[in-house]
Design goal:
This protein has 221 residues and is of the alpha/beta class. The chain has eight helices and eight strands. The protein has helices spanning 16-26, 34-43, 47-57, 64-76, 93-102, 115-123, 163-186, 199-210; strands at 4-9, 30-33, 83-87, 107-112, 125-128, 134-136, 155-156, 190-194. The strands form two sheets. A five-stranded parallel sheet has the order 2-3-1-4-8. The protein is globular. The model has no long low-confidence stretch (mean pLDDT 92). Bound molecules: adenosine monophosphate (AMP). Adenosine monophosphate is lined by residues 12, 34-35, 38, 55-56, 59-62, 67, 88-89, 91, 95, 160, 169.
Length: 221
C-alpha cells in the first residue's frame, strides 16, 4: 500500500492549512496541524492549553519538547493508513532533526509568499468563535458582517493575528524556518510553490510538482 508523508511549510497566511486540508482530504490522508491541536487545548482549557496560551498569543514559538511530544503522540495514533500531511512542524532545525530521525518524508511542500502579501491576508483573517470555520475579508467574506454563514457564530480574529504578533512570527519564520528548508533542500525533497495565485491554482501546482493525480475542485470544498 502506498503511504505518503508530506510536510507543508509556509508562513502564517500562506494557506498551508487550506492547502494541506485539500490535499489530505482528496487523497485520504490525515491532515495534522500542530497549531490546531494547540488551539484545541486552549479552547478546552486543558493543562497543556494553559502552558501555551500566552506564548501563542504573542506569536512566539512554543518549546521544542512540548511540540515534539504533541507530534509524537498524534502520529502514534497511527490512524494515517494512507499517509499524512503535517503543517506547522518542523519550525526550526532541532524539530527538523527530530522529525527526520523518526519518520521518512516523501516531500516538503514549501508555500512561498512575500511578507507584504502575508500581512494583507493575515490581518483580513477571521475565525468563527463557535465552529472555527475560517473566513477572509478579502477572499471569503461572510454573507452577514461578523457572523458565520454556517452556524451564525460571531467572527473573531485569532489572538495572534495582530500587527505585533505577526511581526514576531515573520521574524521568527525567516530566522528559524529558512535553515529548516535548507536542511530539507540538501536532501532534495523540497517543492517550492508560488502561493500567490488562488486556492485551486496553488493546489493544482502542488499536485503537479509532487506527481500526484490532478485536483478536481468539488462544490463543497
Ligand atoms: P500555526 O497555526 O501553525 O501558525 O501555529 C500557531 C502557533 O502555535 C505558533 O505561533 C506557535 O506559537 C505555536 N506552534 C505551532 N507549531 C509550532 C512548532 N512546530 N513549534 C513551536 N511552536 C509552534
Amino acid at each position: 500500500m502506498w503511504v505518503r508523508k508530506y510536510v507543508i511549510m509556509g508562513v502564517q497566511g500562506s494557506g498551508k492549512g487550506t492547502q494541506g486540508t485539500l490535499l489530505a482530504k482528496d487523497l485520504e490522508m490525515v491532515q495534522i496541524s500542530v497549531g490546531d491541536i494547540l488551539r484545541w487545548h486552549i479552547q478546552h482549557h486543558t493543562k497543556l492549553g494553559a502552558q501555551v496560551r500566552r506564548t501563542m498569543a504573542a506569536g512566539e514559538l512554543v518549546s521544542d519538547e512540548l511540540v515534539e511530544s504533541v507530534v509524537r503522540e498524534r502520529l502514534d495514533m497511527h490512524d494515517w493508513n494512507y499517509g499524512f500531511v503535517i503543517d506547522g512542524f518542523p519550525r526550526n532545525r532541532r524539530q527538523a532533526e527530530f522529525f527526520l530521525e523518526s519518520y521518512d518524508i516523501d516531500g516538503v511542500i514549501h508555500l512561498d509568499l512575500p511578507d507584504e502579501e502575508v500581512r494583507r491576508r493575515v490581518l483580513a483573517r477571521r475565525l468563527c468563535s463557535q465552529c472555527s470555520l475560517d473566513y477572509n475579508l478579502i477572499a471569503h467574506r461572510p454573507a452577514v458582517e461578523d457572523r458565520c454563514d454556517v452556524c451564525g457564530g460571531e467572527l473573531v480574529r485569532r489572538d495572534d493575528d495582530t500587527e505585533e504578533a505577526l511581526a514576531n512570527r515573520l521574524r521568527d519564520y525567516h530566522r528559524k524556518t529558512n535553515p529548516v528548508l535548507d536542511l530539507f533542500r540538501r536532501k532534495e525533497f523540497v517543492f517550492s510553490v508560488d502561493a500567490m495565485p488562488d486556492r485551486d491554482a496553488v493546489q493544482q501546482e502542488i499536485r503537479a510538482k509532487l506527481d500526484l493525480p490532478p485536483y478536481r475542485p468539488a462544490d463543497d470544498d
